[in-house]
Amino acid sequence: MAKSKPRVKAPKAADKGEIITIKTLISHKMESGQRKDKQGNLIPRQIIHHFTAKFNGETVFEVDIEPAISANPYLLFKMRAEEPGEFEFIWEDDDGSVYSKKQKLNVT
Fold it and tell me: Strands 13-14, 98-107: parallel, antiparallel or unpaired by DSSP?
């Protein structure tokens, strides 16, 4: 499988108290483990099963992802910007891989 690529669309700056929207997407096949290859063998399950968004080290959004979600899972959530800091977005894969991306937020 090709390397999964995480993408994030979030503002780089916000006013104090502003509610901001964060959008994430990761390129990933999300193999359910129920399909078969050309030889009739089951293709092993490989899904992103957990996503966590942290801001300044504190979890602000977290979700367990089930096998029924489509390929390239897209998540959107909102957060109130109270202070400047750094987001860390973490995707965990069944095969033990962990993908992450960081982005700073300036709050004035």
Answer: parallel
DSSP letters spanning 34-66: --B-TTSPBPPPB-EEEEEEEETTEEEEEEE--
Per the CB < 8 A criterion, the answer to whether 55 and 75 are in contact is no
Q: Which two tokens stand for residue 5?
A: 């690529």
Residues 35, 52 contacting (CB under 8 angstroms): no
Question: Cβ(9)–Cβ(22) under 8 Å?
Answer: yes
pLDDT digits (tens, 9 = 90+) for 47-59: 999 999 999 999 9
Q: What is the pLDDT of residues 15-68, one digit of tens each?
A: 999 999 999 999 998 888 888 999 999 988 889 999 999 999 999 999 999 877
How far apart are alpha carbons 78 and 69 in whole angstroms?
21
Handedness of CA 108, 77, 99, 3 (dihedral sign): negative
CA separation for the pair 101, 59 (Å, rounded) = 14
